[in-house]
Amino acid sequence: MTTLTIDIGNTSIKYAVFEGQTMVHHERIIGHNITAIADGIATYHPAHAMVCATGALDDTQRQLLEGLTADTRFLTHTTPIPITNRYKSPQTLGMDRLAAAVGAYTEAKKEVLIIDMGTAITYDFVDTDGNYVGGNIAPGVQLRLRALHDYTARLPLVDAEGERPPLGENTETAIRCGVIDGIKYEIEGYLNHFFLKYPNLCVFFTGGDELYFANERKKRIFADKMLVLKGLNEILSYNLK
């Protein structure tokens, strides 16, 4: 069975075509041009689709998405999923976070911490029994850089790419190092806390570049930029059964 999953984020669309559990095609589209998906999947003819969106979809967008397959579904907090959602306000939980949690737990089958490095950095935890417990949200790289510029009188807007000495040697490197190293230390703090509390924990990074850690942790740290799309396919398969 051929299926389609679509993750509509703040700045781009990611989609993937699956044959069963195997991803056979994927693409990232900058912006929100839904018609480009139709072009990309034309040779695959998926029968079913599962969509999650960070923001609200207008009527035109929904109609375009519904036209991609004979059975296009939209992930909401009421959609049946193969894990248990313990979030106290499930209607406010980002569906991409929930899909990533499903994807990670399906692969690991034990407690998982999912770190999604996008516009915001999210930290989400699923326990060994498949309960989505909750998570935290922090500003991402670009948000931090933009905030330092927008909410101060004289600090410049700095690009994330560039020189990064151990300590900033001028205002540009001070901002870049402060933001990027600050995120690194933040993540290390989460890892220290969770590995101490859950010795068998698996960690999944998605939405950003792979980071490097001590050898004893590498075996349980995975980078998977397709985690949301894989989770959506698991949810779709669960509902089709």
Question: What features would you describe in this structure?
Answer:
The protein is of the alpha/beta class. It has 2 domains: 2-109 and 226-240, ATPase, nucleotide binding domain (Nucleotidyltransferase, domain 5); 134-223, ATPase, nucleotide binding domain (Nucleotidyltransferase, domain 5, 2-Layer Sandwich). The chain has 7 helices and 11 strands. The strands form 2 sheets. A 6-stranded mixed β-sheet has the order 6-9-8-7-10-11, sandwiched between helices. It is globular. Mean pLDDT is 93; it is low at 212-216.
Question: Concise description?
Answer:
The chain is of the alpha/beta class. It has helices at residues 35-40, 59-66, 95-108, 141-150, 171-197, 215-218, 227-240, and strands at 2-8, 12-19, 22-30, 48-53, 71-74, 84-85, 112-117, 120-126, 131-139, 202-206, 221-223.
Named CATH architecture of the largest domain: 2-Layer Sandwich
Spell out the helices and strands N to C: EEEHEHEEHEEEHHEHEH
- Distance from N terminus to C terminus (CA atoms, Å) equals 12 Å
Number of helices: 7
Fourth-tier CATH superfamily name of the largest domain? ATPase, nucleotide binding domain
Overall pLDDT score: 93
Shape: globular
For the record, the CATH class of the largest domain is Alpha Beta
**Largest beta-sheet details:** 6 strands, mixed
Unreliable spans: 212-216
The order of strands across the largest sheet is: 6-9-8-7-10-11
- Strand fraction: 25-35%
Radius of gyration: 19 Å
Total count of strands: 11
User: How many domains?
Assistant: 2
Would you tell me which CATH topology of the largest domain applies? Nucleotidyltransferase, domain 5
What is the helix fraction of residues, given as a range?
25-40%
Backbone structural class: alpha/beta
